[in-house]
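Box S2. Input/output pair 1.
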Amino acid sequence: MARPDDEDEIAKSKRPQVFPRDLYGMGVEQMREYIAELQLEIAKVNAHIEKQGGMKSAAEALFGKK
């Protein structure tokens, strides 16, 4: 897992992520790193879903559910 003080990992995280990637030619360690990146992306999407759900609930509470 990336450490906040690891400059190489910080540089990698600033690069745009492309999913899905071609697995051909990847080594086992590269695939494990890819899985970690995918898990981070999934966590980011889940957080966004939760945020949107909270916004929807707040709007329904304010305006009444229809």
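Box S3. Input/output pair 2.
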Amino acid sequence: MPDNDNKTPPVVLDEHRGMASQKETDARRNRSEVEADQAALQRGRAELEKFLFAAPAADWPDAAQKALYLLRLFDATPDARDPRLKHLIDDATADLNRLVGGIADPDA
């Protein structure tokens, strides 16, 4: 039976690879983490959309949540990089939040 007091530490294979191989391994690990995060975000977005668009808004805060969500979606598009549109999005978001009494962010 082997003596447990003389255990050697495990070999860390990354230390024995070349730099290019380590970078490729790190890139694969990062890519799979990013893909998993993106899939989780997509599932969360689908759930939120199912909730937001399941029925007509019952009141102004519900309508504002829907409008704020759509503004955030548009804000993430290349078209929204236009400084005039960016300013309008920011103003409309602030107006909606102010008009409904500072409702909570539906994405939070």
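Caption for Box S3: The longest helix spans residues 19-52. The chain has a mean pLDDT of 83.
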